[in-house]
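User: I'm preparing a small set of examples for a lab meeting where we compare how different chains pack in three dimensions. I only have the primary sequence for this one, and I'd like the structure in token form so I can line it up with the others. Please keep the answer compact; I'll paste it straight into my notes.
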Amino acid sequence: MFKKSILALLLAVSSALTVAQETADFEVIITNITPGQTFTPQLVVTHPGTFQMFRLGLPASEAMEMMAEGGDTGPLTDEVANVAMDVQTIARLLEPGQTSRVVVAGVPRTGFITIVGMMIPTNDSFFALNRVRLPQTATALHFVPAYDAGTEENDQSCQNMPGPRCGGIGYTEETGEGFVHIGNGFHDLGDEDDEGFEVLGPKTYDWRNSVARIVVRRLPQ
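Assistant: Understood. Below is the structure token output for the 221-residue chain.
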């Protein structure tokens, strides 16, 4: 019985050491390459391959909806807490042409990374690096598109878009397309809505995918 206990302890220690040896730090560099959109706080998550924050063609979770409509990363942070290896939030707003950096822990090659942030001013658009494998040794470069959560109508009205430009409502219970899809930018919908609120147009706020440049670099041990 004593020998079996010692063996079990040795195996546990060996397993813990193996996991520790497999983990590494990664520098994540996010650059906003849109001409007129700002990124809300950016959520960076490392996780196993069994997890996926959202799937194209399927409805967004409520936590995803709250991030895409209002920029709130708190519910998503709670949602991934039980599966994530590391969760970091870059709290600053990222203006066009600006870059933010953060270091996260992850498992090279077998681990994955997901990065999301709302784009403002929009109704429910966000940028994302969606479930991408962490590099083994080198640096990985990704140009990522804008997505639409499909949870709110894209009326481009300032009363329904949060942030410093409009100051409108963020998370609402309105419905949109009903599924996550590739964002299709801004359109010419006139200058104001039926209630007299300003409607933003494509000249300043439209984009052409991709919207973000993301570098994931494994740091030396």
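A couple of notes for your slides: Helices lie at 2-22, 62-70, 74-80, 202-205. The two ends are 40 Å apart (CA to CA).

User: Perfect, thanks.
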